[in-house]
Amino acid sequence: MTAASPSNPIDIAELLAFYASAGVDEALEEEPINRFAKAPPKQTERAPAPPAPMRESRSEERPAPEPGPEPGKAAERSTVSFSLDASGIPDAPARPMHATAAVPDEGQVLLARQLAASASTLEELRQHMAAFDGCNLKFTAKNLVFADGNPTAELMLVGEAPGRDEDLEGLPFVGRSGRLLDRMLAAIGRDRNSAYIANVIPWRPPGNRTPTPHETEICRPFIERQIELVNPKVLVSLGGPSAKTLLNTTEGILRLRGNWRAHTTASGVTIPAMPTLHPAYLLRTPAHKKLAWRDFLEVKAKLRALG
Ligand code: URA
Question: What per-residue string of b and e applies to 181-205 under the rule 16 or more CB within 10 Å gives b?
């Protein structure tokens, strides 16, 4: 293979196509940025700043950050993250608005639980999630991906985490796997007016990496409350990570799928839950579509039986 010429549009198109097929979908800086580095000392009025050298001016070209602590302070504060009052509830969200370092701490899990429990409507829950700064995924995502579909539907489906298309649109399952999910729903006579769709993780993990167990634990209270507020007759977990989180199991999805389980809400309501294969997996493994088809027929029959 010859090296691509940077000036030949055909070479460039081929290179971009190669990147796209390899899953490269983000343009990053050429050099890493040390976000732990101390902020440069503030210039005083008596010592006017010399003209900025080229390297520093590059960082000023990036979009201006929203108001928040200085970078050096953000890194310091994220290591001292919360304190508890007598009730065991964190007294304040200590994670700064623009923390660039992820320091997992139990305080954020407690805070997520407290916020989720205090939401009495889906809209309140959405607002609490939008204001929550305790999950580092929020800071690399473009949008909160809360839900799509009909919140009064008797069927709720929960995926793992948004991908690129979902992050851009702020809606779950709008990319390729979403189009397959729509066809799967259509096969049992449903669409987004008769189903409600959400994800365990509401922010896209950078580069579509697998969410860490800690990120999942931080987000768990939100999806659990979302299920409780929607209160569907039947829950479908799409893929292994969703099944593991919502059904509290470590079993693999190929063993789990097709068998009725139960999801129990914080208030003790038990919802029949069907674990099935994730549409993205089905796109890669079309021979298994027939398994998902069987699972969806089970769901259809259960909904009919429950009236
Ligand atoms: N995969 C998921 O699990 N969720 C989405 O919203 C999109 C793809």
Answer: bbebbeebebebebbbbbbbbbbbb
